[in-house]
Design goal:
The protein starts with 5 loop residues before the first helix and ends in a 14-residue tail after the last helix. The protein is elongated, with a radius of gyration of 31 Å. Strand 10 and strand 11 form a beta hairpin. The strands form two sheets. Strands 1, 2, 3, 4, 5, 7, 9, 10 and 11 form a nine-stranded mixed β-sheet that branches. Strands 6-8 form a two-stranded antiparallel sheet. The chain is α/β, with parallel strands linked by helices. The chain has two domains: 266 residues, 3-Layer(aba) Sandwich (Rossmann fold); 90 residues, no CATH class.
Length: 419
């Protein structure tokens, strides 16, 4: 083939197209594989992230402790990284998104850090880091600043750490109301929830951020700090993104265990994080975000109800109940839940919503059936306990009647007298 021939031209174009889509987009019918690393402690960041991964059908992955805290020792962290962190660069590129939530980069070798950087900038993995520079303390922000991985994220780490506003230097948290960017020219990552978010967070705070040029800011904390801010003085970026190499990466000024990211305080936290991952991995964001929010609520309710249902059935089994039919019906419900998940991944949210409504109704009916089985199994337990107590009471009553009332076993003691 000659260099200028049409065949060569078509071949090159096909390679470019496959490379672009292979690096920047996740298959629509496959969950995004997330490598989530966070500050230790199940009650904090790890617990929040685990909840995201378990309840969202478009996610798969396991959170790894990457900073000692909350009963997680440095030895635990090193062991978890050794076991769960990808063994090769090729293994790492099988993931779609890297989450670094308040981590200590000193636990990662230079090789690990180079792999993460290359995986994002060359292989096109998405990414997000939290708490601006990972911490308000230079004990953890310095390793982040010195890591090549931080170069791939939109926050200007050296500028933050050297600022007199940064907490470790005696500064303070940027504090004020959260304001959502309503520019329709940017991706709808947070904008669909603008009214609700601004109402819920009239006051908020986080670690100082300084977005790099070219960043897209989705939310700000409107603070009293007038020496910094974009596009206006005092507007400190809360959540923002940029494109670096082949990667789309995000920085958040707060921790995932803070109110903005916790579902009990911000009901749209899950939706925003999902939008971050979808945006970074090339998925199309939903047009009707509030409808999809309602669908994700059904997913969470299903997980809660199924968890309590299985616990009750396992309890019932301990008393000899035959639960074969119950589990058979549960498998049928799980198959229909898998169909709803598939519709969701393919973007058919209405079909998924209808499917989940039917699944939850059937699960509740099956739960009522399991309650009857439990009551039937426990009825024999209660009967045996009642008979045992009643028999003991009768036996004690008979003995008491004969000894103390009728005195059948009683003999009067003879009296000895001295003359």
């Amino acid at each position: 083939m000659r260099p200028g021939s049409p065949v060569v031209f078509v071949f090159i174009i096909s390679l470019l197209v496959s490379a672009i889509f292979g690096m920047s987009a996740v298959s629509a019918d496959e969950p995004a594989k997330i490598l989530a690393m966070a500050k230790g402690g199940e009650e904090g960041r790890i617990g929040v992230i685990r909840g995201w991964l378990l309840s969202e059908p478009s996610f798969t992955g396991t959170p790894i402790a990457a900073r000692d805290f909350g009963g997680v020792s440095s030895e635990d962290v090193m062991r978890m990284i050794r076991i769960y962190f990808p063994r090769t660069y090729e293994d790492l590129t099988l993931y779609d998104f890297i989450l670094l939530a308040s981590v200590d980069m000193s636990y990662f070798t230079d090789t690990h850090q180079k792999w993460m950087y290359d995986a994002m900038t060359e292989a096109g993995l998405g990414g997000m880091n939290t708490r601006s520079v990972q911490s308000m303390s230079t004990a953890w922000s310095a390793p982040w600043m010195n890591s090549i991985v931080s170069d791939a994220f939109p926050n200007d780490v050296p500028a933050v750490v050297s600022s007199d506003i940064y907490q470790w230097g005696g500064g303070s948290f940027p504090t004020g109301p959260i304001e959502v960017n309503d520019d329709e020219g940017i991706a709808p990552v947070v904008r669909p929830f603008k009214e609700q978010i601004e109402r819920v967070f009239p006051t908020y705070r986080g670690v100082l951020t300084i977005p790099r040029p070219g960043s897209t800011i989705y939310t700000w904390v409107k603070s009293s700090i007038k020496s910094l801010g974009s596009p206006l003085p005092g507007y400190i970026g809360h959540l923002f993104e940029w494109t670096y190499g082949n990667a789309t990466t995000f920085t958040a000024m707060d921790m995932v265990m803070e109110p903005f990211w916790k579902g009990d305080e911000n009901p749209y936290s899950m939706d925003i994080f999902v939008n971050v991952v979808w945006r970074a991995t090339g998925r199309v964001l939903p047009q009707d975000a509030l409808r999809v929010h309602a669908l994700r609520t059904l997913f969470r309710h299903y997980n809660w109800e199924k968890s309590s249902f299985v616990a009750m059935v396992e309890f019932t089994e301990n008393f000899g109940a035959n639960t074969r039919d119950i589990y058979s019906k549960l498998r049928e419900i799980e198959a229909r839940k898998a169909d709803a998940d598939s519709d969701y991944l393919e973007g058919d949210f209405e079909a998924s919503y209808d499917g989940m409504g039917s699944v939850l109704e059937d699960l509740q009916e099956l739960e009522a059936e399991a309650v009857k089985l439990k009551n039937s199994a426990l009825a024999w337990v209660f009967l045996i306990e009642w008979l045992s107590v009643s028999a003991t009471l009768l036996a004690c009553g008979v003995v008491l009647w004969n000894l103390m009332i009728r005195r059948r076993m009683y003999r009067e003691v003879a009296v000895t007298r001295f003359d």
